[in-house]
Design brief:
Helix content is 79%, strand content 0%. It is mostly helical. Helix 1 packs antiparallel against helix 3, helix 3 packs antiparallel against helix 5 and helix 3 runs parallel beside helix 6. The two termini are 18 Å apart. The relative contact order is 0.15.
């Protein structure tokens, strides 16, 4: 169990770097500063969920992976409604679907 906690702590740093990289790689100048951070944050949350959705043992997925996936889906829907950064929205949709797929496959694999 302590290994999972260390894994999650180790994932936080690269997720912040990914979000910052995507913010500057795909700029969206015609929206407000807060709205510029939504698509990179959605990418980061979707990738976090993708990396943690397989943790069905001890039902860690219910506490770690699925709430983050729901936040990513909500932010993705908000980005779609505001028409924010179409390049990152496509990447986010792929990441969210991949996280859902990994979650379902691991659910059946671990036989919860």
């Amino acid at each position: 169990m302590i290994g999972i906690v260390f894994l999650l702590i180790a994932l936080i740093g690269p997720m912040v770097l990914l979000s910052t990289f995507l913010y500057f790689r795909y700029p969206d100048a015609e929206v407000s500063r807060v709205d510029r951070w939504i698509p990179p944050l959605t990418s980061t949350l979707a990738l976090w969920s993708f990396c943690t959705c397989w943790l069905w043992f001890y039902l860690f997925n219910l506490y770690i992976g699925l709430p983050v996936l729901l936040m990513a889906i909500g932010l993705h829907l908000y980005a779609m409604s505001k028409n924010l950064n179409p390049k990152l929205r496509r990447i986010n949709a792929i990441l969210i679907w991949a996280a859902c797929g990994v979650g379902f496959l691991s659910y059946f694999y671990f036989d919860v």
